[in-house]
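Input record (one chain):
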Amino acid sequence: MPTDIVPFPQDRYAEVLGELLAAHEEFWDGRDLRALHAATWFRQFGGWALLAMDGPVIAGYLCGTVTADGLGYVQLVATRQPYRGRGIARDLWATFTANARKAGATRLEAVTSPGNAGSIAFHRSLGMTAEEIANYAGNGGTTVLFRRDLDDAGSP
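The corresponding structure, as predicted from the sequence alone:
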């Protein structure tokens, strides 16, 4: 069943964000990542956010931004449980990457926790390197930083 990748509707950001938070468990499997869903990512940076739609159902989403110095950063990417295994997160990343390239991005980054083996494997499959960095967020913990230069041709 195909899904459509569409821009996040900034004129309805609060409503759509509310829908994502109401379905949080279906996207994040018991991990509480609501704090990463700050309204800023949807209101101020929402022009970079994407939704994967199956008719009226949000099957997946990606929140990111592109900085003036050429960094395409993805804050969140998630696929709703019933839609996993269909390449939706890969399609979201591909669309974001294409948009970031058009805006002049030269590199991509994202982060996850060291225990998130699925995220690490997925991002590596996108051609990103994964580096564990101690105290990355200043909280004493370790973070996995994904990176990929965009000067190479290829997939998302």
